User: Which sequence fits this backbone?
């Protein structure tokens, strides 16, 4: 409101004399380093698998995008039809693989114009924008998987790392 009614020259003069950048320094700690934060003080090493699976199944089943198990060897999100396509459930060696891949494709779908509108779906495979979207989806899958207790084998972690490195470059 201060600038209302001012000419452009008056606004510029006001801004030059009254507006300045301020840098602040904050000390940040990891939650595990702070006593008394219940979530991190004694985090269970063993998450109840049945509850975890129920939660992840509910996320997948109730998600607003249609998920079709109709592919043989690939998973993808189709932005034009707003659908996720996955291999049939029985094709996955481990339930964790199904959850991880489902979360990856769900993360892609959040970029749809009716959701976060990331405007990534017109990008060419291999472009910088496409790579950024792959990183978004992979990080989302990893973080949600970690939060819900999806245990990953050493090989799975190496695969995730390789995938991230590929798109990072």
Assistant:
């Amino acid at each position: 409101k201060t600038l209302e009614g001012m000419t452009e020259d008056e606004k510029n003069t006001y801004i030059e004399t009254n507006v300045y950048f301020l840098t602040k320094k904050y000390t940040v700690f990891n939650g595990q380093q702070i006593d008394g934060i219940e979530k991190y003080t004694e985090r269970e090493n063993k998450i109840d698998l049945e509850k975890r699976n129920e939660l992840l199944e509910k996320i997948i089943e109730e998600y607003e995008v249609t998920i079709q198990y109709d592919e043989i060897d690939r998973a993808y999100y189709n932005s034009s039809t707003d659908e996720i396509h996955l291999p049939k459930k029985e094709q996955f060696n481990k339930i964790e693989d199904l959850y991880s891949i489902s979360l990856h494709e769900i993360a892609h779908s959040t970029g749809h114009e009716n959701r976060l509108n990331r405007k990534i779906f017109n990008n060419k495979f291999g472009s910088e924008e496409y790579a950024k979207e792959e990183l978004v989806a992979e990080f989302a899958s990893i973080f949600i998987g970690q939060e819900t207790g999806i245990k990953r084998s050493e090989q799975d972690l190496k695969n995730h790392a390789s995938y991230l490195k590929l798109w990072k470059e």
Observations:
- The beta strands are 66-71, 76-78, 83-87.
- The first strand starts at residue 66 and ends at 71.
- The mean pLDDT is 84.
- The chain is about 45% helix and 10% strand.
